[in-house]
Amino acid sequence: MNYSAAHELALKKFRACSLEEMASCSGYTLKNNALQLEFLGQSYLLNYPSGSFEPLQPSARELPVPTQILILHYVTNLSDIQEVGQLISYKELPGGSIYIKPFTGRAIDPLVRIFGSDPDSLLKVASHLGGYSNGLGDVGITYKVFSRVPLSLILWRADDEFPASGNILFDASASAILPTEDFAVLASTVVFGFKGIKAALDQVVSLR
User: Fold this and answer.
1) For the chain, what is the mean pLDDT?
2) CB within 8 Å of 92: residues ≥ 6 apart
3) 3-class SS letters over 149-188
4) Peptide bond preceding 150 in cis form (omega within 30 of 0)
């Protein structure tokens, strides 16, 4: 998919916003002419007005364009919407029921495939990033991808009758913060980001 048009639109909106307002609404810190942010354990500067992402750690990877667009969409939402504490599924987001099958294929199925045989490793990865157990399913975690956007990942272990299964839920405030399509990108990005962190943590353990 060609993301160049969407990226340009996101950059245009970013440049039209006040840096101070974006910092206040997003929860990110102002650092000179940039927003300092963390995404999946890696730190970046989002420079203003260029919209370029500058890694702050040698280990930080360059952010893919869809992830850059996602972050730009988040920081340019200059609202004071707060969490309501009620969880909803993707199909409960506006238009989400139409795209639930692709969402399942790109986010929920990989979650089960990667963590279903070892659900406890999901909690280990989430804890490493500041997430926490939410008491849902056999193993459920909540991780704040952005300060106003918590993501709840839930797994049920396989048993004699059923294979492992999972779900991904959002706070009911979600649709006021990002478009529905962004939550598909967000969930998929988090699941595969967790996969990479799981591999890194497993490697550390194997070297001990």
Assistant:
1) 95
2) none
3) EEEEEEEECCCCCCCCEEEEEEECCHHHCCCHHHHHHHHH
4) no
